[in-house]
Specification:
It is a single chain. The chain is mainly α. The protein has a domain of about 35 residues. It is built from three helices and no strands. It is rod-shaped and about 120 Å long. About 0% of the residues are buried. DNA-binding protein that specifically recognizes a negative element (S1F) within the RPS1 promoter. Keywords: DNA-binding, Membrane, Nucleus, Repressor, Transcription, Transcription regulation, Transmembrane, Transmembrane helix. InterPro entries: S1FA_DNA-bd (IPR006779).
Amino acid sequence: MEGEFEFPGDVPPSFDRVGDVIKKSEGQGFNPALIVLLLVGGLLLTFLIGNYVLYTYAQKTIPPRKKKPVSKKKMKRERLKQGISAPGE
């Protein structure tokens, strides 16, 4: 019975195949999906950082917007709401 379970080279055939798979997978390089993921992630990160830099630069250099002048009619209406009579009335 002991002779039935012995394999040539003392390595069962199932484990011998596993060793071949490990040896073949080592030299393949990067996974293509990983390269695409890194490329898209890098572009997105660059876009977001660029937008932040441009936003901060614009805040420092562009003067604030001028407010529209209030019309005389609206000023008169506001004074009447506050209880101040308009001059000449």
